[in-house]
Fold these 4 entries.
Entry 1:
Amino acid sequence: MAYSEDDLKQDLVDQEYEFGFTTDVDSEKIPKGLTEETVRIISSKKEEPEWLLDYRLKAFRVFQGMTEPDWAHVTYEKPSLQDIVFYSAPKPKKELASLDEVDPEILKTMERLGISLEEQKKLTGVAVDFVMDSVSVATSFKEKLGELGIIFCSFSEAVKDHPELVKKYLGTVVPSSDNYYAALNSAVFSDGSFCYIPKGTKCPMELSTYFRINESGTGQFERTLLIADKGSYVSYLEGCTAPQRDENQLHAAVVELIALDEAEIKYSTVQNWYPGDKDGVGGVFNFVTKRGVCQQNAKISWTQVETGSAITWKYPSCILKGDNSVGEFYSVAVTNNHQMADTGTKMLHIGKNTKSTIISKGISAGNSHNSYRGLVRIGKGADNSRNFSQCDSLLMTDTCGAHTYPYIECENSTAQLEHEATTSKIGEDQKFYCLQRGIGEEKAISLIVNGYAKEVLNKLPMEFAVEAQKLLEISLEGSVG
Amino acid sequence: MLKVKNLHASVGDKEILKGLDIEVKAGEIHAVMGPNGSGKSTLSAVLAGRDEYEVTAGEVDYLGKELLELNPEERSWEGIFLAFQYPVEIPGVSNINFLKTAINERRKYFEQEPIAAKDFLKMVKEKSTLVELSDKLKNRSVNVGFSGGEKKRNEIFQMAMLEPKLSILDETDSGLDIDALRIVAHGVNTLKSKDNATIVITHYQRLLDYIIPDFVHVLYDGRIIKTGGKELALELEEKGYDWLTKAKA
């Protein structure tokens, strides 16, 4: 029999995350709960300087006066902060002797994502043979970056080795008082990444947190600070298309980007955290604050492919402070089963002749809810500013939801704003057209969905784009049996 | 090649085909004509295997196979091609990628290796000339931003690429200006061989000036009420359908 919409619906329900929670993290922990003492312990465990402890404490005091926001179109049981262990020094995971010890399902997925054997070993924590080069590749990368004066290290290292830069920029884009989760992160952040690109330097390779994966496991409260000095360029990749397993339920990261005059930052994310099971049990809460500031003629471009997490709450934004600066936001968000995503961006136009582009593509399946929430604000002084927004939603079932909340605030009459939005159901006509040409159901859906998301996928760096495309295909492949 | 016997089909609880018979042999071109609502598009949809149509009775033998037992994609792999009356847009999927996927899916069905890039491009070049399809259109998303005529030419281009045994052209002439009509017809005529067959579904005789049918059938109220040679089309053009349908009523 022909495959019907009903079958698809059933299969979407039946699709389960293949990866589960199996990581044994061996770590040094402190007692549960959050008090001022917790903040002090974290800071002292990390041997931080006084100014950073002060920063954390200030944030903690602000945090104490705040309440968890509830305006997002997501519902969940609020995590109890007193049940969370706020510091656990990541100890190296148990090394496995060979790939034979790794869950074959994970390996299969990685193979299909086109991840090389070496990378597979690294990602699954298999000891890398010294003759193999992934370690040396990473080292030689670092040497090469060092020659150019590019700093790329963990946040903790940066605090020790480059305190002046950290001190100068930390919290300048996302102040600790910004929002509940940003304040929490500022008080208790575990670690993260730091990157500095010197004046006039074009970073010769895509920087990826991935290179550091063995050096510092991803923390629960990650902090990223990226500074592109005048006239520099960097493309930064965060996350990985490989399934991310994590035992932490609550993730509250803060990412700050600083693009000084004429600088350009391209920041790409692929997020594939555990989304919970088909009944909506478990899964990661991903509450992220990402924001960048552009000085004169600078450009920041955010690209994200979000397929994971039970709850996503994320608005990578741009403050277009300098004249002629440019902000871009390209997003594909896929939700399935009981996943909920409320994601979008804020483009704050302050400088003259500033330009922003927003392309958001939501794909909802199962019983999930997928919301776009965006703000475009044109300030009084932002003469001749322009924004183009396009928010599309694709529905795979009758039981999912797509929502769009675009906010526009304009205080300058010379600005030009355009907003386009579409909602479509994956078309019977499109499907039948593909079938008639001999393209089977599964392939047809992946073709249609990838076509739908293409504008965004094209913005990803090449190798990432191919993986992301396969990731969409795989997540949808399960969805059609 | 195709033997349709006593075919009944409905949409919802409305019966549209009410005992249709038609036989098509290799090397032939058949025209199916008829007034609005007579069941022409239903016939093409049922032959291609569209879900919404329920076959309630009848048999369709296609090259010795029970056609109605096959999925739409299997019918395609076995050589059935439907040129759509309203070709569908697929944003973000290039025409070329679409066709390559289609060809490779069929090759997979026949346990063949994917087509070599060189061979594929050669084929694209050759077949697109046939319907004067520009490079720009080949690389654009499937039917997105195509004019009516371009869409129809694209259908014939796809037909040429997929090399079907039985092609069904559903109102391919609708919305075409005379130049586009000529190009489309040229494509169809060039592709004609002793091994394949074509069913041309149309309202008007006009297309049949360019694609000369061996047989003309008149479809009315879900049945073929008259079959003749190409001169029947001319007669219809002159007299309309009334003289036939009235006789029937």
Note: The first helix of chain B runs from residue 40 to 48.
Entry 2:
Amino acid sequence: MADGIFLALAVLTIGSAIAALEMRSLIYGSIALMGSLGGVAGFFFLLDAPFVALFQLAVYVGSIAVLILFTVMLVRRELIFRKVEDKRRRMAGIGLLLVFMVAVGAVVVSSGIHDMSTDSPPVDYRDIGADFLIYYWPALVVMALILSGAVTGALVLARREDGPD
Amino acid sequence: MSVIAPNFRLSGFIRSILDNVFWIIVLVTLAGIPAIQIVLFYIEMPVIDGELLTPFLALTWLADPSRVLPIVKALMATDLFRIAVFPGFGLAALLAAGTIFVERKMLAKLQLRVGPFYCGKFEGILQLAGDGLKLISKEIIIPAKADKPIFWLAPVAFVGTAAAFVSLIPVAPGGWVVADVELGILAVFAVIGFFPIITILSAWSANSKFPFIGGIRALHQMISFEIPLILSLLGVVMLAGTLNLTGIVESQDSFPWIVFLPVGAVVFFICILAELERIPFDLPEAESEIVAGWLTEFSGMMYGLVQLGTYLKLYAFAAIFTVMFLAGWHGPMIVPPFPAEIITDGIQLGPVTATIPGLPLFDQEMLNGTIWFIIKTVAVIFFILLPRGVFPRIRIDMLLSLGWYKLIGLSFINIFIALGLLYAGVLGPGGMI
């Protein structure tokens, strides 16, 4: 069951990633990118990390993909791109990709990852939260400062220049 | 009064119905029942109570009144029932349909108009059915240069996303929820994030300027109000100590969170209005400026689907408000307990005593919870509808400044109130109350 879902998710993720690069229409490309990011969220679900998966859906599919979509819609593609593709470039690209994939695969196979199995239960997000508050609190404070700085910056940007009359 | 069918005669109508009934009976007896029996002959039937379940026995059981209630009960325990009927789509669609009618009638009364009046004998009560028939029978027109796949897909995806949202809502105690996700409120945020995508895609795919302007407005509005919406719920999550929606409702058994977090409730309510594109935030479909906004090019049942999705979304947001701030299904017990002597002795009608197995169909807690949940949700829906009769539309710069500048600040104040209550030891896990 899990193997089947894994295969389907792998096909979805890699297929829509390829489609996102290869589609002629930029809109369809960004929809395919959404599919790819959603597939990654599915992997997180399979890995018993629903917390990360739901944030992947909310942030990447829900916000970042929208940002890309919005930018793409306001841009006229034919004005900025010139088609430079020819057969040799295409073959070179495919060859480079194959070499890279084979290299990564060789590294993975020769490492100890491929026969690693564990029966330990998945890490609860509550434990991660507790660790953050107790042991890693400086990192949490730094993150909080960055985030509140970002929100304050957003508030400053949203302020009207002319002011209330 | 206009007449749809000038040659209509009631006797002819009744005769045609009787004709249909006659032919149905003839066809079922001659072809239907034999076909069922033949098919059942080849299916291996289970043995129940030491008896082989023959087709005859199965039909007898189905027709046996003493077995109807257990069968209904078994049906109610299935996932399909939950998805399609009770806590899921059926209840939501029923409430959505009621909302559409009440909205039109109530707005009319607020503005001293009559509203729907002619459809049906009483106060236009059949107006909704008439509108539905019209939408179904209307031609679907697609703009010539539209991007057809996305344009077709957008209304379906909209309804699907709204239904996914509805499925996360716990309605009654005892697990009456379609999907009891452990991280329920995060799942809500993830589902809400899909609405802007569908809106902007459908607006772009229509290849027309009014939908595109409306779609961009909708995108701005939804994205900027998602942030205070999420922040305003964090206070409740902190105090309840869980992300599960059922857990959040159970944490409010003595008081609803709106008592302690009124700021968060107000912020969340305003964000609901903006996310639902309701007046005074209906800039995406500003009918006096950009025709109908991102809905302009939809026609026929595609428009009907988008409307259905919009009202499902309205119900879902109102229900989330009820769950987060108004204590969900909690309320005084108003449903009388099921009389025990009916279960033990049966119903006595003169000389006849009827014992009905399978009673009671619903337990008291669940009925009471459902009634309170629906009362509260309907009240919230009423308050969502009310501004439409009162307020004018606001400008987009006022909208964005409200969202980014005021509501985010207020929701941070709400978070600090919640943190104060938590660290003072008043509320929350391990608190005094």
Note: The interface with chain B takes residues 27, 31, 34, 50-51, 54-55, 57-58, 61-63, 65-66, 69-70, 73, 151, 154-155, 157-160 of chain A (CB under 8 Å).
Entry 3:
Amino acid sequence: MALFKAHYNLEKNSIALVIGIILAASVGGIVEIAPLFTIDETVETLPDMRVYTPLELAGRNIYIREGCYACHSQMIRTLRDEVERYGPYSLAAESQYDHPMLWGSKRTGPDIARLGGKYSDDWHVAHLINPRAVVPTSIMPAYPWLATAPLAVDDLGAHLAALRTLGVPYTDEMIANAPRDAEAQAIPDSAGAAGVTERYGEATTLRRFSGTPRLTEMDAVVAFLQVLGQLTQAPYAPDAMLEQP
Amino acid sequence: MSVEERDPVSGYLTTGHVWNGITELNSPVPRIVFAFMVVTHLYALVAWFLLPAWPLGQTFTKGLLGIDQKTAVAADIAAANADRADWMDALATHDFETIRADPDLMARALATAEPLFGQNCQVCHGANGIGGPGYPRLNDNIWVWGGTADEIATTLRVGINADHPDTHFAQMPAFGRDGLLTGTEISVLTDYVQTLGAGVMADDPSDGALLFQTNCAGCHGEDARGISGSGAPNLTDGDWLYGGDATNLRHGLVVGRQGQMPSWQSRLTEAEIRAMALYVEDLSGTAP
């Protein structure tokens, strides 16, 4: 057969064979990945999507540092049991400012994509210091040092600037004020609090997340956990479940 | 290297390679493998027409079957809701007395609520509502915001010190931190509150009683039995949310207390909230 004859000849020329293998293997990748950047349905825009504040971003960095993603996913799939247990399925656009994304693929603990607002700050603090104090059967490790380690805020501006190069719309003003905003979000009666609301929107939550006057890593982690699934309200719109593509 | 040489035994051509006298045959691809390859290609052809397949710039071919994950999950959920519609609708609309009187419906309500309790409430209130430090026990008869199914359903909807516009609101001031009382006064009050198990004595002339009547009675009542619906608990019943020892009482007086329960209205349906209210009422053993 002519096809086999052509292949027979290809096999005799190693350079041509290598090029042929590269071409054949890349077809699969190209046809699956390239259209995702052009098809409207995969490039959703959500009108009310906001960026992480510096404090939430600091919490996210600690979440990555402590390896939380190894046991907790942040991706509710389009399956009935997941939607009924956790809430509306995750939209692609909800992760648009996540670099890197923390979808995860393993659930030793539960999915936390819709955790924000589900439990009180006090509960999160008690749970992170010692999970067994509130959930006796929990196998989660304890993270007591979060409550005592002071939060490093000096380099947050650099983190914001780095994310801007990846397309997250942080403004010059946000970058310049990052350390101040991080402190002000956890100390709502401070002078800088108005600036946080002004720069990040009315939906931003300002409070003493750790319940203590000192700014610790606990403030950042709890602020991050309380904003999960809250960067946009689009998934909760009543017609979001039934929207036809 | 000789080519086009035919192996006399099998009749196949050889590749011309010989190792230690073993000649490599140029035998064709086995028919079964070739057949599978053909079938795979045919399947791909059919799939192109039936399933979402080809990208077309900003859109893609949707396929004749119209399969889409988002509509599929919406249909799954709609079908499940339709399955449960008769009793979920009854839970959402009937009054609690009617539901309690109907054993089938009541069984449905409790069976619906149990996994919801496990998923949403248990992390604070404990398995079977046994409570924990700072989180009220639910399997008793002591209620700050009311223990009837109606009152529990309201608390579930609006939360306590939550972000719901009609939330239950209660805050014990930070008497120490905010300078409302001196350290000595707090010590006196701490001692006095520990004696309240015996109830409030009328015309008690002690410093503790005077401080209590001036600072605490406004919320906790002159008899220290709390005021239902105000969020201020009974201090005479020996049940302590944050612990009744001197350390915890003193801490509460110094930094205040403002417990929180989230509002569940945005996470649970009306039927689920009402099923949960019946379940919690059942836990407490107060069901009429």
Note: Chain B touches chain A at residues 28-29, 55, 57-60, 68-74, 76-78, 80, 119-120, 122-124, 126-127, 132-135, 163, 259-262, 266-267 (CB under 8 Å).
Entry 4:
Amino acid sequence: MTVAQESAARPRLDWARLARQVGGLVRLELRRLLLTRRAVILGLASAIPVGIVLLVGSIPIGGQTVLERFGNRIVYETIFETVFLGAILFFGCLYVFFNLFRGEILERSLHYLLLTPLRREVVVAAKYVAAVAAVAVLFMASTVFSYALIYLPVGVSGAIEDLTAGPGGRHLVAYLGVTLLACIGYGSLFTLVGMVFRNPIIPAGALYVWEMLHFLLPPALKKLSVIHYLKGLLPVPLSDGPFAVVVEPPPATVSVLGLLAFAAVVLAVTALIIRRMEIRYTED
Amino acid sequence: MSDDRNIVIRDVSKFYGDVLGVNRVDLEIEPGITSLVGPNGSGKSTLMNLLAGLLRPTRGEISVLGLPVTRPQDLFRQFGYCTQYDSFPRGATGWQFVFSYLLLHGLDRGEAERLTARALERVGLVDSAHRRIAGYSKGMRQRIKLAQAIAHGPQVMVLDEPLNGLDPMVRAETIELFRQLAGEGQHVLISSHILHEVDLLSDRVILISNGYIVAEGEVPGMRAEVEEVREQPLQVFVRCDRPQWLAGRAFELDHVTEVQLHDDGGGLHLRTRDADRFLRLVAELVAEGGVEVEAVGPADSDLQAVYRYLVDEEEEPS
């Protein structure tokens, strides 16, 4: 019996088969993301925070390292907020998620996916989940390694004590959560941008300016930025400077659920677009 | 749209903005080998992409074995499509290409491996299966696309110019494969712009020109008569809402030799030495909104004259 005949005889939705299909697509996408040049570029980007923390934790200036002089939590928070959240996560997600569909359109291979017995909405969801998994694994590993390096001045025993008995463990979990939520939030946004725009420069530039200058926005508009919710989850509050419009950060549950809901809505819009999409590569 | 054995296309039109893709296509295609023949740009690929749901019709309905083409989760268990696009996922080997898309049908790995091996064997690519597709010749790329399209054993196979780039021996093997598949009761719809390539293997031929189906049916032996009608003007009929106006436009063309309005005022007959150019004009006028065309086609008693478009096109591509 051929696959076609076998499935024609199957009247209802076969959940086990659907799970295998989604698993197949997630694995295909993971291979595309983790076993190609794209993974090397992402790996190098995710190593940047590790390198920075290593520098500020090991090179003494005036007899003390930067970590020792300003305090390891403040220094790490500053690096995480400005370098990791402010640049690497944003552009890393842009690189991966913008190309999630756009890359295959430019490669003229998207039709192979659309000619499989999967609803297009499922294709969107599976590709997105795979990309979030790939990016989150790399960036969360970067978070763990860079965070571990802030204990250079106190050694292994000090690190263990802080992580188990002090606030270190809770902080690390918060940084990991923010990393994951950033991948989820920015990932959904850039997946949609990749479906709508052929060139990422203008939309990504506009989004970047919006996100980075969110601290100057009035309270109502702050709520329209992803980073506003992410920063509310960071464990060490930092000043945004004298010109910042200061507002109370949203409660953690609002931030988490809000970002998840935002990602779901953006993905639903993306699914709607791809559902109506025609394959006419000559236009792309 | 209730025939569960056939491909049914009802009053389907596709416009790309103002440009006509296909217009008012009505077809019911039975199992067996059917060839869709027409010059480059005549609408063959558009029609195939509509069948696969890669394009959405501007008007009309399509069903394949009773399944609407808007439900990929059902359609593509029964449907395999070898497109015209000569592009592949970056870095994939022939085996990975066929195997990974088979997994998306929900097969377990063992079954997917078995079907991959079978498909590669059917197209004669076993030895090259683990080489990257980027290093394949044009003919090998054609065959790996074919393997991917037929690997899951679909009931309906739509193959856009599948013989392009194949050397004579592989071409003969591929044609034999099509015969085998059709012999198993499957639909094999093949497009080609070269008439003699398909007229011997097809059970049925559909002729398309400038977005219109100009003829369809069983055509054994027709090719032999083509030369006899080459020099004769072809009679074409058009059923439309403004026949007088269209007649005026037709008379401006130097290749139109005679125009006759229908008695009911709903159409016209004309004779032309260049039907292809005339059909192009009709398509442009339709796209501009100048005239609403209900039907257009050859009015000669046999299909030979229609073939002449294609033979002319083959020798003098536009």
Note: The domain at 7-217 of chain B is CATH 3.40.50.300 (Rossmann fold).
